[in-house]
Amino acid sequence: MKTIFRKKVSDQRKQLILRVGEEMGIEKYGGYTLFDDSDYVDYANPKWKRRALHLNVRRGIEEASPDHILELISDPECDHFVWLSKRIAESERVHMLWVYAHELRHVVQDTLYPGLSEMTEPLRKSLHAGSAKQPTAFPIEMPQEFDAELAAMDVVVKILGDEEYRTYRRREEAANRKAADYFRRFDELAAPWSGDPIADTRRMAISL
Ligand SMILES: [Zn+2]
Question: Which of 113, 43, 34, 121 is nearest to 75 (CA)?
Fold first, then answer.
């Protein structure tokens, strides 16, 4: 994948971003990662209201997209597209690298675990609907998302070191309740993690 910086970032930040790409082996995939210079919080297609995303372009392109994005995803060589909004590209480096590594892990998952995205889709819908059993569920309840978060943590710790990760986490936990709940749930899921998101997704689909 080719990394495109529409948003100007410092050389130091650029090196860290490229390092994440190397660690995750993205050179063997066709497509683009884009650090955008805009946020699209009012965009008609809700996909672009997000902070970041991964598109498997082989499963279909998003027709309703900003022109410069549509151009990239229409490229016949583009299998995967990873997009980071301006607000992520500008955010604290540990956070930015985390979000980036998370989205890149979705690229890797498509090869490692074929079918995982399709299996996860119905779970995503039911979690969004807020089932009675899990009224405040985080996306990491889905094995696909938890696997992406774990991979992101590994890469961040490898590149920035354990101390920077822990400081970031402590600060987030202290600053807001949701982050504290999130990291507590992250730890709960990490303890019994099987490392097999396909089996875990199957189990979850049965229990929902
Ligand atoms: Zn994700």
Answer: 34
